[in-house]
Amino acid sequence: MSKSLQAIRGMNDILPEQTPLWRYFEGTVARLLDNYGYRQIRMPIVEFTELFKRSIGEVTDIVEKEMYTFDDRNGDSLTLRPEGTAACVRAVLEHGITGGGQVQKLWYIGPMFRHERPQKGRYRQFHQIGLEVFNLEGPDIDAELIVMTWRLWGELGLRDAVKLELNSLGTSESRGRYREALVEFLSAHLDNLDEDSQRRLKTNPLRVLDTKNAETQAVLVDAPKMADYLDDESRAHFEGLKARLDAVGIPYVINPKLVRGLDYYSKTVFEWVTDKLGAQGTVCAGGRYDGLVEQMGGKPTPGVGFAMGIERLVLMLEALDKVPQELSRQVDVYLCAFGEAAELAALALSERIRDQLPNLRLQINAGAGSFKSQFKKADKSGALYALILGDDELAQQVVGFKPLRGQGEQQSIAWDALAAHLATCVVQG
Questions:
Q1: pLDDT score recorded for residue 56
Q2: Closest Cα partner for 83 from 334, 337, 308, 364?
Q3: Which of 96, 111, 343, 387 is the most exposed place for a label (fewest CB within 10 A)?
């Protein structure tokens, strides 16, 4: 027998039982971003490999180990996008929409791809909602991004489950000075560093700060601190950000080891972390990348953004029992029809009801069936009410109206009064 076909490891199907929660989360975020004046942009999932090498950095773990890269039939090296910022910058440069200092506040949603070890909430195909702002350089826009996420956690009921961590990486010049001091310090303690940190010391030393190795962490206690190397501009920017968060009342902690895994960050970096999914994990992170547009061939353009992982946040909503109860019901009303004449009338009647109540979730029975079998399907659908249309109802131009989830007797409702009755009952239900 041939081997059964399965999804690729770390690339998962999202089944119909799961999609209502995904749609709820995505819809909540989309409405929030609309309210703050952000516009959606959609980029391809495949880009030229050079885009990510130039933006993310050739010596990062993402480029060295995790990208899905292949040659197409023309011999071009292409890569499934591992993150969204680089692709968004490419898009705004290609279409010239940030030229002349135009402010752009953009967001996107979709799958990203990284070949890493699959684990709970972290997969090889994962989904992100990302946000990028161009041509605003002050701490006010950095604060707005964080305030928006704080409002989102409030709407989702997650504020008590997340913690905000902040740091400033300064400008490229101040970061360069800090890098030299850090390398000098770590080189003197080389034998106490884990193997991965020894490798990063030669390629991307700031990433050593992010190590989970206990021995290396002990060495880092006495390491130089980024804050001591910040330039005056970056220090003032960071103080401005903290003042705005204080004004809104958003709690945060300064994490001097927070550097993020991408080379393009400067000044503000932040992460929203949680311990509600087992080990502490990041659910939303971002920061400022003022040099990235120029690095990719554009004119100097300040930029800032973040991305949030949909899988992890959906898991949090489930783990903390924050899933709205109404998501378990996908049908409000189920219409049962018996006999061909009733089926024809039911089709016309259901479309008339949909015209009058466009938000009503009305399912009409398909595949005929006995009274018992249709009612079984009505109950299985999760509907609040069943509508019954047979020869007797057809003759009187009424429908039987039967509650499925609570008290109440079956009654007959005239066709002309059905929409008004449903509007009242479904809202109450």
A1: 80
A2: 308
A3: 96
Token pair, residue 256, equals 């001097």
Between the CA of residue 237 and those of 136, 207, 307, 413, what are the distances in Å? Answer: 13, 23, 22, 66
For residue 250, give the nearest of 166, 312, 316, 310 by alpha carbon.
166
Sign of CA dihedral 364, 370, 373, 379: positive
429 — pLDDT class (breaks 50, 70, 90): very low
Q: How far apart are CA 339 and CA 68, in angstroms?
A: 56
Phi, psi of 94 (to 5 degrees): -60, -35
Q: Annotate 14-49 with b (16+ C-beta within 10 A) or e (fewer).
A: eeeeeebbeebbbeebeebbeeeebeebebeeebeb
- Name residue 386's beta-bridge partners: 334, 402
Range 94-109 average pLDDT: 95
What's the pTM value of the predicted model, to 2 decimals? 0.87
Q: What is the DSSP letter of 119?
A: B
Both tokens of 26, joined, read 């995505």
Select the more confidently predicted residue: 194 or 95: 95
Query: Using one digit for the tens of pLDDT, what is the confidence trace for 260-316?
Result: 655 678 899 999 999 988 766 899 999 999 989 998 899 999 999 999 999 999 999
With beta carbons less than 8 A apart as the criterion, state whether 49 and 58 touch: no
**What per-residue string of b and e applies to 263-276 under the rule 16 or more CB within 10 Å gives b?**
bbbbbbbbbbbbeb
| Model pLDDT for residues 39-94, shown as the tens digit of each residue | 999 999 999 999 998 888 766 778 878 999 999 999 999 999 999 999 999 999 99
CA distance 384 to 365: 15
C-beta of residue 256 within 8 angstroms of C-beta of residue 167: yes
- Separation between Cα atoms, residue 317 and residue 359, nearest integer Å: 25
Mean pLDDT of the residues in the chain: 90
* pLDDT above 70: percentage of residues in the chain: 97
How many other CB atoms are there within 10 angstroms of residue 83's CB atom?
A: 19
Q: Could you tell me which residues come within 8 angstroms of residue 216 by beta carbon, excluding any fewer than 6 positions away?
A: 192, 193, 194, 197, 208
